[in-house]
Amino acid sequence: MAVAAFPSCGARRLNARPWLHAVRASASSPSPSASPLPPPPEIDALAAPPRSDSAAAVAPTPRSFFPKRGQTLELVCESLAFKGKGVCKVADTAFVVMCDRALPGERFLGRVTRKKGSYAEATKLKTITPHRDAVEAPCQYASYCGGCKTQNLSYEAQVRAKEQQVRDLIVHVGRFSDKDPDFVAIFKPIVPCDLQFHYRNKMEFSFGAERWMPRDVSSGKEEQMEIGYALGLHAPGFFDKVLHVDKCLLQTEATNKVLAVIQDSWRDPKLGLSPYNVHTHAGFLKHLMLRAGRDVNTSNPEVMVNFVTSSYEPNLLKPLVDKISAIPEVVSVMNNVNTSVGNTSVGEEEYTLYGKSTITEMLRGLTFQISANSFFQTNSHQAEVLYKLIEDCAGLRGDSSEIVLDLFCGTGSIGLSLARRVKHVYGYEVVAEAISDARRNAKFNGIHNATFVQGDLNKINDSFGNDFPKPDIVISDPNRPGMHMKLIKYLLELQAPRIVYVSCNPSTLARDLDYLCHGLAEKGIRGCYHLRSVQPVDMFPHTPHIECVCLLELC
Ligand SMILES: C[S@@+](CC[C@H](N)C(=O)[O-])C[C@H]1O[C@@H](n2cnc3c(N)ncnc32)[C@H](O)[C@@H]1O
Fold first, then answer.
1. Sheet with 242-244, side-by-side order of all strands
2. Is residue 3 part of a domain?
3. Whether the complex's predicted ipTM surpasses the cut of 0.90
4. How many domains does the chain have?
5. Which one of the listed residues 248, 504, 528, 550 is annotated catalytic?
6. 504 catalytically annotated
C-alpha cells in the first residue's frame, strides 16, 4: 500500500492516475450545474478488467489496434459504466469502446462515432449474441427513448451493475482499499426498489412541431423527423428533437391517464394550439409537467398538470383544461408562462387555471405541499426507504439535545423528518423558492425547531457558521457536482462528530469522501473522518441513476 503524505483516517490506496487530478480538481468548480467529470475516469475506473485484483488494475492499453471514425466493429460488452454506457472491447484486442445500450455479455456490431484518446465511442447497430441477463422490455419505446436505458436487462442484473459501479468508484476515485478487512462491513449491498414501474411522481414532456423517429438500421437511415406534432420526451442528447410518447411506464397510472386525455385532444385543429418551435421561437405550448401526490385524508392519488407556455392565453387552453379537470384525480391545473427562448420549464409568471396551486405528499409521517416548481423526491415510495436509512445513519439519541445542520436542504424534507427527535435543525439551500417551501412545510407540520436560510454553499466565507451552534450531525445532500472545496474545508475545520453524506452522483461522492477522509496533501488539507458505511440505494430502476447514503465519523 502506498504511503500517504499526511496521516489520514480510513484505509487508503494512493491512486497515481493522471485523470484523478481532473476529478479531484472539479471539487472547486464554482458552478452548481457544471459537469464535474470528464469521461475518462469512468472508463478507467469501471473498465478495469481484473476484478479479483482491482487494487492493481491498470487502464487497458490499446495494442496495435486503433479504429477509425465510421468503422463498423464487432464488440463485446464487459460491464456497465456509470451513466449506463456499456464498457466494450473490440474482439481480440484490449481496446475500449463505450456504447449506449450495450449490455454485459452482449456481442454486437457497433459503428465508431467518436475517438477520444485511448478509447472510442460507438452506437449499436445489431446484436449478434444477446446479453446474458436479457429480458423483454415492456415499454414500446425502450430501445430508443432517453428515459430508460436498461429496461431489457433483468432488474437483478441492473442493481448488481449499479452496486459494482459504486464499489469501483469508492475504490478507484475515493481511494479506499477493498483489501482492507473493514471494507466488507463498510460497503453495504444495494437496496433495490420494490416498485420497478410507475414509481415517478413527476414527469416533464415537451411539445414539438415535428416527430423524431429513431434510427432504422435495416433501412440504413440514421434517424428522421416526421410530419406531425409531437408531445413526449427528448431524443437522447437533443433539445430540439421530440419522441412522441403516448404512455410512460415510469410515471404513475394516474398521470398516464391524464397524458392519454391530453394526447387525444391537443392536436385537434379546432383548438388552435401550436407547439413551440425552439429554432424559430414561434408557437405556444412548450412543456407539459405532470406531478402526482396523495390526498392526506384518503390517500387517493392527486395530480397536478402544469402547462408551460410562451405567453399567457388562458382562453386558448380552456377547452383542454375543461377536459382534464373532469378527470377525478386532477386537482390542480397550472400555467407557467415562460417568454424566454431558453428551454426551462420554470415560468416568470404562474397562474392557477383550475383547482388548487399545490398538491400534497406524505413522507415519514409528514405532509408536504408541493407547488409546480418545488423540488421533491421523484420516487415517493423509495424516498421513504432512503429517509429511513438517513435517519438510521444519523444515529440520533432522540433526547432532543442534538443540533442538525442540513446542507443542500431543498424544501427541507430531510431536516424536517429528523426535527421531532432533535433540538434544532438548520437548513441551507441556494433556491429561494425551496426555502419558502421548507418554511411553509415546517409550519404546516407544526415544526418550530427548524430554521431555513437561503445561501450559496459554493460561496461561503469565514462568517459561515456564526449563525448556528456547532452541529452534532451534518447532513449533506448536494446535487451532481458534489461539494465545493470551500465547503469541504469548512467541514474539516468544523469537525462535527458525524456527517451523513447523501449523493446522487457516486463519482463526486467518492471524490469528496477521499478529501474528507484522506485530505489533499498538495493543498495542505488533512482529512479527519473515518468512512463507516456506504449504502447504495436504487431510486430509479431502468435508468443509470444511483443514490448513496454514507456515514462518516470524526477520527
Ligand atoms: C439533491 S437536492 C437535495 C434536496 C433535499 N435534501 C431533499 O432531499 O429533498 C440538492 C439541493 O441542493 C441545492 N443546491 C445546489 N447547489 C447549491 C449551492 N451552491 N448552494 C446551496 N444549495 C445548492 C439544489 O437547489 C437542491 O435543492
1. 242-244, 224-234, 202-213, 285-294, 301-309, 330-337, 349-355
2. no
3. yes
4. 1
5. 504
6. yes
